[in-house]
Amino acid sequence: MEASGAEFEGPLAQRGIGIIAPFDLALERELWRWAPMEVSLHLARTPYEPVPVSLEMAELVSATDHLQRATRDVLGVEPEVVAFLCSSGSFVHGVAYEAALCEAIRAAGAPDAVTTSGALAEAVRELGLTRMSVVTPYDEPLTRRLEEFLAELGVTVLHSQYLGLGGGIWKVNYRTVADLVMAADDPAAEAIFVSCTNLPTYDIIAPLERDLGKPVLTANQLTVWACLGRMDLPMVGPGSWLRGVFQEGVEPPPLPEVADPPDTIEEGAS
Prior knowledge:
By secondary structure, the chain is an alpha/beta fold. The protein has a single domain (about 15-245), classed as Rossmann fold (3-Layer(aba) Sandwich). About 40% of the residues lie in helices and about 15% in strands. It is built from eleven helices and eight strands. The strands form two sheets. A four-stranded parallel sheet has the order 2-1-3-4, with helices on both faces. Strands 6-5-7-8 form a four-stranded parallel sheet, with helices on both faces. Helix 3 (about 65-75) packs parallel to helix 5 and helix 6 crosses helix 10 (about 220-230). The model has no long low-confidence stretch (mean pLDDT about 90).
């Protein structure tokens, strides 16, 4: 049987995203599930640090010299954008430091730069969010830094749920994460953000959004979404409120009507 010429025209022209991951990332497979077929993810890692997940680790993995070295490691495959895939490392010192991290990545030669917390900020602006709940695997001090970062963006955190883990975050099961999201929900919250790129979330986002009737935004989801937006590509996978933001002619569903916020903000709980 004679083969047609079309069979030999592939593969799709590859378009690349450079990913700078913390040394303990174990969810590469989840990242790939967000990307369309023509997109490849090229990973580099920050140096190993023998410390638990904490404020100290967030500061260590976000050192600009580490990010610039990792950026140069992936430039040979010509990524269109380089992302620092780390929530805590990009929110730990606030909005100005997040911007400085992007500038450091671009200064090392990246055509464009994204961080996970910067992607969160973009989603906050695109969706017009002002009141949110958050879920983290961190301890209380690191969770508070996330709340402070969101406050700089004009977002009030109504409720926080955190696990207080010092490591092994990728081993947390879906049921635990889903229970935390449900516990963190507040009638006045317009969305829920699940922090940490090492916390599994992919398969529970859609059912949680259906049950809660509001956006459930997660760290890996937002990072890939922001990168694809810079490449004029739509996001693959769950995230109905985000799907239409960068896809021409497709509008995301309207944000749900929410109750008035309470007089006092509930403290975070473990």
